[in-house]
Amino acid sequence: KVMYFIWTTVWTNYLFLYSLILFLKAAGSLVWYTLLMLFILSYSVYKLLPFIFSCFNTKFHWLDTLNYSLLFCSTFFFLSFNKGESWFWIMCSVEYVFSIAILLLGISFILNGWGNIFSYLAIAILFTYMGGCVLPIVLTTYAGFFVYYFYVFIKKHCRIKHLLQNLTAKKTSLAFIFFSISSLIMMLGPGKTHRMALLPSPTLSTGSIMAAKSIGKIVLFDVPHILPFFILFCIPWFYLGNKLRSSNIVLVKKEGLKKIFFVSSLSFFILLFLTIFPATYILSDTAPYRVWSSVYFGITIICSGWGFILGNSFKLKEAAVNILFIST
């Protein structure tokens, strides 16, 4: 309560953080929190992958799904620029990586097809938590809702009646309501005003320059270090895509690759803007590494998705497939 009124309004993050500190004092170790964060992240990806695979009319054994879930989470970790700050500094990981894990868990509850009270209650709690998170995560989540409703109303020409009949649409609308209420509590809190008064007056030009400096610094000094990991972790996803192709499941024709890469690149740059610019605008300085967590996650999706699509688009000889299998 004191933090909300005098310093920061990310109320759900700090409510969880202080509750966690009380528990960890009794537990005597931070390991339990790290294990909890990794479990929620891995479990969320494990529950989401079958929905992604079902879009391609294919299913995998649960052990294969678990294997690729852990691979995705490992990719996320190794493609992070500053692992200490993003993953092991408890205050930062609660605000960013843990929030991403909670968002994925919330999406899995929306897509799971359950219409019971437990599912609705879980969605309400998880997206209330998301609404009170740090601003870059909140803006990215709002962008996700915007894309969903744009697709439903503009692309599919659905009406409000659709939201009342379709289970996934009803659950998404419930998530949006609780998320919006919680985010309003975060944005209108008095602590933000007190904190902003201690910082330099933000300007659009300064924020833009600092955002450009942040991106330039990352591209010049950090990207070269993660590039080998990017290539390395592409290989298993390339193998998975090629494995589906050998089963006569072709997802994207070669002619459609340009469109896929354009859409994914555009989405990534929007994510980059929503993540970096709010921090540089408010701080009038370059964005700290923890703020980049959503970008790390976006890079992980690109690494996995591009590897998977490229593997599915090109037919390889058996010897090359065997090399990929051994590498995987």
Largest sheet: none
**Average predicted local confidence, pLDDT:** 82
General shape: globular
SSE pattern: HHHHHHHHHHHHHHHH
The strand count comes to 0
Tally the helices: 16
Instruction: Tell me the Rg in angstroms.
Output: 21 Å
Strand percentage: under 5%
Between the first and last Cα atoms, what is the distance in angstroms? 49 Å
Query: Helicity, in percent?
Result: over 70%
Low-confidence stretches: none
**Could you say which structural class the secondary elements and strand pairing correspond to?**
mainly alpha
In short:
With 328 residues, the chain is an all-alpha fold.
Overall description:
There is one protein chain. With 328 residues, the chain is mainly alpha-helical. Helix content is 80%, strand content 0%. The chain is built from 16 helices and no strands. Helix 3 runs parallel beside helix 7, helix 7 runs antiparallel to helix 8 (117-131) and helix 13 packs across helix 16. The longest helix is centred in the C-terminal third of the chain and has 43 residues, at 204-246. The protein is globular. The mean pLDDT is 82.
Please write out the topology:
Elements: H1 2-6, H2 11-27, H3 31-54, H4 62-78, H5 83-88, H6 90-95, H7 97-111, H8 117-131, H9 135-155, H10 160-165, H11 167-187, H12 190-197, H13 204-246, H14 257-283, H15 293-313, H16 318-327
Helix pairs in contact: 3-4, 3-7, 4-13, 4-15, 7-8, 7-11, 8-11, 9-11, 9-14, 13-14, 13-15, 13-16, 14-15
